[in-house]
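Severity: low
Component: inverse-folding endpoint
Summary: output formatting inconsistent between runs
Steps to reproduce: submit the following structure tokens with default settings.
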């Protein structure tokens, strides 16, 4: 029963937010990367799935806004709550992850 409640809650939250974004097809996501010692950090405005992170990289979530969940494709494939409540399309997490990787390589 709890799983079904999660699906309903996620769908309801997503619907409410989607209504506020009518007509918006894409938007920029503010991201910052930096290194401290041997560890890399990335700031993201939302809840970033740890599976999207590179080794030795930590995410600082809820930074510079809140764009809800940034899930991996598996979350979409399996219907996880985070994917249902996400405002970004399937594959967006991987696109952002690749961008972050490129940003880190330039440091």
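Observed output (run 2 of 3):
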């Amino acid at each position: 029963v709890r799983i079904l409640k999660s699906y309903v809650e996620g769908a309801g939250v997503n619907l409410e937010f989607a209504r506020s974004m009518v007509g918006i097809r894409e938007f920029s996501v503010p991201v910052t990367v930096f290194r401290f010692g041997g560890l890399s950090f990335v700031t993201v405005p939302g809840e970033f799935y740890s599976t999207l992170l590179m080794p030795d990289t930590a995410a600082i979530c809820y930074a510079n806004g809140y764009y809800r969940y940034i899930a991996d494709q598996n979350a979409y494939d399996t219907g996880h709550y985070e994917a249902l409540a996400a405002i970004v399309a399937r594959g967006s997490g991987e696109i952002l992850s690749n961008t972050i990787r490129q940003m880190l390589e330039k440091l």
